[in-house]
Design a protein that fits this description.
The protein is built from 18 helices and 12 strands. It has helices spanning 13-17, 26-31, 33-48, 63-75, 89-99, 122-128, 149-166, 185-193, 213-221, 226-240, 249-261, 278-292, 322-327, 356-359, 366-383, 398-419, 427-439, 446-456; strands spanning 9-11, 78-82, 113-117, 137-142, 175-179, 196-199, 267-272, 294-296, 302-305, 308-311, 332-339, 388-393.
Length: 465
């Protein structure tokens, strides 16, 4: 157990303040306590049965990763992640949070620049070659299955660029393949060609993999203390094992969102008031959508459930989205993330003292301003009858970031139990992958291609204008 000063707290007073019609009452939460207790127990039972191995990641040995990271730091100027979805979003979120939004532009930086290519857009991939030298770059190819089309396409593209820069005999020195420990196309390449590699542990799906080698290698290469990252996650594990729901922030967060969903609140807005945490909202959007958006219940019943995640950034989106949240439909829960102590306060100097628009700012700081804006937005929402809750982060460091990520992962797992769905599959994503294979002529998908061509042949010419 760590110093309580580093504990992230969940404040849901504004869910209660808006009342029963659009929010929740304490009595409603109390009435669901036993259901929530059973959901907590179900998650822990699945864990004990070996199903949820991502929950053991905080206790993994990091020695191999740290040694590899040290070697790569000494050899290369650029570290490039080739992955998509869960193989990319966690890397981006951790780097932005702990290295800052201007990491690549820092002067005097002694660790490699980080680039994450998470799309098959041709200009995105080709554009990277305008700003890096492949001969001075290492590429981390991440796909658990070893067959993700977008990732393998980027691998082929940059493999060719590296070959042209350094020659075919040195290609393997510029790649690290993070994939299934025993099977799949990338594991075959590791075995055949001697690429350096790291395993994606069994039972760890992409959206729950940020605290595995998937996310830890890029963090370690760029100088982040991954032991502290995992220590924070281990602390969150202590908090989320708590059987008493009223002492378990992940459980209460899940219950609030589940009960509000039953009242028509089917949009969840993740809105950190900290630029460093901007990409945590992006990471959360995949975690929430891919885990909870399901057609079938565990019993096979068609339910078509799932709260829609929306990412926002305070205070930026006060000037773009908040008008809708305050005066629009009563179908949104706002999840704020508030940082109590920023590393930089940003004191505001005096100027134009005779003008009220400037004078009131003197003596304050950017830190005070952004937290006042968060509080003011919460007040405006509450007065409008719109519920919100806030994760209060003491400060942004490796420990609290690891804690936050793990809390949100367990919150998602418990929400899956409350909704009665499997939070760990993604059949909708797989359907899209299969259609892509068919369209590009991958062997074994001829029947699907025929079905697609037949469906496309039924196009209504009036439907394209």
């Amino acid at each position: 157990m760590t110093d309580q000063s580093q504990r992230i707290k969940l404040d849901f007073n504004n869910v209660l303040r808006v009342g029963a019609e659009h929010g929740l009452t304490e009595q409603e939460l109390d009435a669901a306590t036993e259901q929530l207790r059973q959901a907590i127990q179900a998650v822990q039972q699945r864990r004990q049965g070996g199903d949820l191995r991502w929950m053991e990641l905080p206790y993994a040995d990091t020695g191999e990763i740290e040694q590899l990271a040290a070697d790569l730091r000494d050899q290369f100027e650029n570290f490039v992640v080739l992955g998509i979805g869960g193989s990319a979003l966690g890397n981006i979120a951790v780097n932005t949070a702990l290295n800052g939004p201007f990491y690549n532009q820092l002067t005097g930086r002694k660790t490699p620049r980080l680039f994450v290519l998470d799309n098959s857009d041709p200009e995105f991939n080709a554009g990277l070659l305008d700003v890096i030298d492949p001969a001075k770059s290492v590429f981390n190819v991440i796909t658990k299955s070893g067959s993700t089309g977008e990732t393998l396409s980027s691998f082929l593209f940059f493999r060719d660029a590296v070959q042209k820069a350094v020659g075919a005999d040195k290609i393997k020195d510029h790649f690290v393949l993070t994939t299934d420990p025993a099977k799949g196309p990338l594991r075959e390449l590791v075995n055949q060609e001697g690429f350096r590699s790291l395993p994606v542990p069994d039972g760890v799906g992409g959206r729950f993999s940020v605290l595995s080698p998937v996310g830890l290698l890029s963090a370690a290469v760029t100088g982040i203390d991954i032991k502290q990252l995992l220590a924070g996650a281990a602390y969150a594990d202590e908090l989320t094992r708590e059987a008493d729901p009223w002492q378990n922030p992940a459980a209460l967060g899940a219950l609030i969102q589940y009960l509000l969903y039953g009242k028509g609140v089917d949009i969840v807005v993740m809105m950190p008031y900290a630029q460093r945490l901007k990409d945590v909202a992006d990471w959360f959007a995949q975690l929430w959508a891919e885990s909870l958006g399901k057609k079938l219940s565990r019993t096979g019943e068609t339910v078509n459930v799932g709260p829609t995640p929306v990412k926002a950034l305070g205070a930026t989106d006060q000037h773009s989205q908040v008008q809708l949240y305050v005066e629009g439909p009563f179908n949104k829960l706002i999840n704020f993330i508030r940082v109590e102590q920023f590393a930089e306060q940003g004191a505001l100097p005096a100027g134009y003292a005779d003008m009220d628009a400037f004078a009131y700012l003197t003596g304050h700081s950017f830190a005070e301003l952004i937290n006042a804006e968060q509080e003011a937005t919460a007040i405006a929402l509450t007065e409008a009858g719109k519920p919100s809750m806030t994760h209060i982060v003491p400060e942004i460091n490796a420990f609290t970031v690891g804690q936050l990520l793990y809390l949100l992962e367990v919150q998602t797992a418990i929400a899956g139990e409350l909704f009665g769905i499997d939070a760990f599959d993604q059949p909708g994503v797989e359907a899209g992958k299969i259609a892509t294979y068919a369209l590009l002529g991958r062997s074994g998908y001829e029947q699907q291609r025929q079905q697609i061509e037949q469906a496309l042949g039924q196009n209504n010419p009036r439907a394209v204008v």
